[in-house]
Write a structure and sequence with these properties.
Structural class of chain A: alpha+beta
Number of helices of chain A: 7
Mean pLDDT of chain A: 91
Strand content of chain A: 15-25%
Largest sheet of chain A: 6 strands, mixed
Helix content of chain A: 25-40%
Order of helices and strands of chain A: EHEEEEEEEEHHHEEHHEEHE
Distance between the termini of chain A: 22 Å
Radius of gyration of chain A: 19 Å
Oligomer: homodimer
Chain lengths: 250, 250
DNA sequence: CGTGATTTTGACGACACTCAAATAAAGTGG
DNA sequence: CCACTTTATTTGAGTGTCGTCAAAATCACG
């Protein structure tokens, strides 16, 4: 499945267009942004490419320009847990004490990133408090999001987990239409299962339940209409879905 | 159970002795540390006191001087998930974009903290890149720790969860003796269960299994001898337990 | 020593996993 | 474009782990 070596995306040598518009660059000095742009490189990864491999050294920090990435950890006994998904504008990799990757980052769709050399990036962060402060808040946002994920896995049963998951996706990637919200998943059932701590079979059966209850329609396995969003919210059992944020993966 | 109001610990008016020795203060200018000390106040909480209440405004950042604190979230349908534990030198509360508390912090043992006004603390952090950088790494450490917790809940069954939990505690609070590691838990079974996404009954039964297998001895419900740590590691199924770090709760 | 809370143990049931097969979708070559 | 292969998803049947409910035992505390 993995068609290329970790951190071996083809570099197209181009400069990325708009570092300055990123959330993590808000209120940052122009001079620092110039320095950032000077060390930035655009890279492309194909669907299925491993961008960062667990336990390998990572000498880059990425900002995702376009695409969808999954983060996962593999346990000694062969299980896999997807800890999160990252998309456009999210920050990926390298922002941590040590260079060893804590989890694997794999491109789900074709993905374009803006890459910075890790050491240089961290030096700039350490020297510039605005940039650092923005990243700190991105990190604390991530802690809150993970906290919700922990609560999901610790407290909720399969229907609530899947409902929450669909609402999370709809929140960021859903298209609202007159009668329903359309959700196009680039994810496999296996990815959903590994994110929610369930098996593919359970995911499939729970989708079937929802379909029979009229909550959703499955046009194709990965094209879903959400018909009754309020009911899904009730099933999810979270009083509030997390706010939009800058995703931060390590 | 909750014997006092949120954020209502008795202030003893004293200055805390040694801000400067904290990990998050490493390499921070003396001038900034002076400012920090100037706005610091010592506070005490009794066992069971709620230090921060979920959804309430928090206008303090705490550094725990002594004691043990649990962080938990309560869901709409009455379940509870403990997301982490904090102890001496760990940072608690307020370091986030908004002031609303994302989870509840409750003192397990009597706890002494050093409190800073949130706004002033964040201003100092924003202005001082060393302090900010230290906090950023504390935050990314926390993200990694939570990532492990997510993997635990998503992939592991009860015995592996409990084994991991005991090893985590032993790593920070265990006392190594000649034949075994002694672990004195200030936690109730209910706390363990809510941390591991299980029930008290399952915790109890799993302890019994371990005892029958000779892995542990239970002198009292909360005094445990770990007899065969390597076997516990194997059961835990994590190739590496997380390194010691500065805990960061929000 | 007695009371109340916590922990343990037991019996039973439900939810989700495993294994297995059928169906549907996607990719491949003629 | 269609038959064929391969992969992904769905459905089915049976099992196991863990949750629920209930009672006994133990512990903590006054």
């Amino acid at each position: 499945m993995e068609s290329s070596h970790p951190s071996d995306g083809k570099c197209n040598g181009g400069r990325t267009p708009s570092i300055r518009e990123l959330a993590i660059c808000a209120h940052v000095d122009d001079a620092v942004l110039d320095e950032l742009e000077a060390i930035a490189t655009a890279m492309r990864f194909n669907s299925g490419d491993v961008i960062i491999a667990q336990k390998c050294d990572q000498n880059s920090v990425f900002v995702i320009t376009d695409g969808l990435v999954k983060l996962y950890r593999e346990t000694a006994d062969g299980d896999r847990q997807i800890t999160g998904f990252l998309g456009t504008e999210d920050v990926l990799g390298g922002i941590k004490r040590t260079s060893g990757a804590h989890c694997t980052a794999e491109a789900i769709t074709d993905t374009v990133v803006c890459a910075f050399p890790r050491k240089k990036f961290l030096s700039l962060v350490e020297a510039n408090s605005s940039l650092c402060f923005n990243l700190l808040f991105a990190a604390t946002d991530e802690i809150e999001a993970q906290s919700d994920h922990i609560t999901l896995l610790g407290c909720k049963r399969a229907p609530a987990r899947l409902a929450t998951f669909m609402l999370l996706l709809a929140h960021r990637w859903g298209v609202e239409e007159k009668e329903h919200v359309t959700l196009v998943l680039p994810l496999s059932r296996s990815d959903i299962a590994d994110y929610l701590g369930l098996t593919v079979e359970t995911i499939s059966r729970t989708f079937a339940q929802f379909r029979q209850a009229g909550l959703i329609e499955l046009l194709k396995p990965n094209v879903i209409y959400l018909n009754r969003v309020p009911t899904l919210y009730a099933m999810a059992g979270f009083d509030e879905l997390p706010a939009t944020r800058v995703g931060l993966g390590l």
